[in-house]
Design goal:
Blueprint lengths: L1 E10 L2 E11 L4 E5 L6 H8 L7 E6 L2 E2 L4 H7 E4 L11 H11 L6 H10 L15 H15 L3 E5 L7 H16 L3 E5 L3 H5 L4 E6 L2 E7 H8 L6 H14 L2
The structure holds adenosine-5'-triphosphate (ATP).
Amino acid sequence: MIAVEHFRKQYGDFVAVAGASFEVPAGAIAALVGPNGAGKTTTIRTLCGILRPTSGTIRVAGCDLADDPLGVKQRAAYVPDDPPLFDTLTVWEHLKFIASAYRLVDWEPEADGLLEQFELAEKKHTLASELSRGMRQKVAIACVYLRRPDVLLLDEPMTGLDPSSIRTLKEMIAQQGARGATVLVSSHLLSLVDDLCDHLVLIRRGSVLFHGPMSQARREFGGPNQSLEEVFFRLTSEAERSV
Ligand SMILES: Nc1ncnc2c1ncn2[C@@H]1O[C@H](COP(=O)(O)OP(=O)(O)OP(=O)(O)O)[C@@H](O)[C@H]1O
């Protein structure tokens, strides 16, 4: 689970997130959406312990971020939109490194399975520096899947992936939810997260406009087609008008 209360993040005097509160229950797959600069990356990077909140309470996978940051880092995994890999390690060596850092046992069959699923098997012994952008993204995602984290934080995971990889990734995200992991996916590709996510967190200019089940958002704001795109435009334009 993810529980955020009155979360505020300032960069100097600039308020990037202004007292956001939302919850994502265990096993839910939530879309974190909002216009450019809304505070999505700031929120995700705070949830995984990379950024310190200016104020507020954050609980991730049962751990309070202020009291037990290591607990959060052990249980949550974050994939940034342009994941850094080690240029001098091969794909397989990345998986081996993760297995060793997190003391995983008998991880090899699962790692091989992930490479198959992500169509990376033939690149198993290729250096990261020789991979395409989409392949690097898939290696980073395979590394976090190998850990089986309780909470997965994915920042724009579909950017740069081809249609077949997007389909695979969506199936694999759904599998993570089915095994009980909580997933928060930040994305601008509304049509791609629409059918994947059962919860929604919509933010704009650092404030939460909606959080809760996707079905509720569709019913209340989705218009005749009940699409996430419609929810997005209704809520963000209403907020624009009320300024
Ligand atoms: N290190 C920083 N120093 C100062 N301001 C920052 C910093 N990082 C982000 N910001 C500002 O905080 C706000 C939120 O940025 P953030 O990257 O969280 O937004 P986002 O919703 O992820 O945007 P996008 O959809 O464009 O990726 C923006 O106005 C941004 O300029």
